[in-house]
Design a protein that fits this description.
Elements (H helix, E strand, L loop, with lengths): L4 E5 L8 H10 L12 H5 L3 E7 L2 E11 L2 E8 L8 H13 L5 E7 L3 H8 L4 E6 L2 E7 L2 H24 L1
Parallel strand pairs: 4-5
Antiparallel strand pairs: 1-2, 2-3, 3-4, 5-7, 6-7
Bound molecules: coenzyme A (COA).
């Protein structure tokens, strides 16, 4: 069976599609293992949202919430659609739509989420550092972003030191 996935920028249709997003969220199960924080509210507050759509159904979502120069990104794909290349395509779409909105993207991945780490590595992301079980990755979108990514990477040891002192 061949599936035809549409990749649609739904940022301006979030109200109209709220029920479909809530349904996608409700149907998630094992996908939450590495991403328990995902919910409908997170999508509704995003500044970029791209949905992977099979027929009428949302089967994957990538998004980004902007704060100053930074865009915090997330991605989640329904289990039956994982490993088919949707993740790669959604990241390409996010990079295209996030350009001109912020200078860099960042995200947090659990250390044992090998599939997601492999996926991010394909797009020139930098592992800025680790905190506990989490890896922080960054990807610049412009020259300011390159400087910010560098500054974050070199300041990570200090952040970890503060973590240790606080413990
Ligand atoms: C992580 C996730 C977004 C990846 O998306 P995906 O559509 O499954 O990934 P793709 O099919 O595009 O594959 C991308 C790369 O991942 C790696 N990959 C794919 N399937 C894999 C598997 N079974 N085991 C290990 N690596 C795998 C490969 O390197 C692949 O690239 P390649 O085919 O060129 O070698 C998706 O699996 C997912 O939604 N997981 C649950 C939620 C989650 O973890 N979100 C991220 C939280 S930060």
């Amino acid at each position: 069976m061949t599936i035809e996935i549409q990749y649609v920028n739904i940022r301006n249709r979030l109200i109209e599609l709220k029920e479909a997003i809530a349904f996608f969220n409700k149907e998630l199960n094992s996908e939450r293992k590495h991403f328990p924080a995902f919910d409908t509210a997170m999508v509704m507050k995003s500044d970029v949202v791209i949905a992977a759509i099979n027929k009428e159904d949302i089967v994957g979502i990538i998004g980004m919430k902007k704060k100053f120069f930074f865009g915090k990104s997330y991605i989640i794909i329904k289990e039956g659609y994982q490993g088919l290349g949707l993740g790669k395509r959604l990241i390409k779409e996010l990079l295209y739509h996030a350009k001109n909105k912020c200078s860099m993207l960042y995200g947090v991945i659990e250390k044992d989420n090998k599939r997601c780490i492999k996926l991010q590595n394909k797009f020139g992301t930098t592992n800025a550092g680790t905190r506990g079980d989490l890896e922080y990755f960054t990807i610049p979108l412009d020259n300011l972003g390159r400087i910010l990514c560098f500054l974050i990477r070199i300041s990570f040891p200090a952040i970890k030191l503060v973590d240790r002192i606080k413990r």
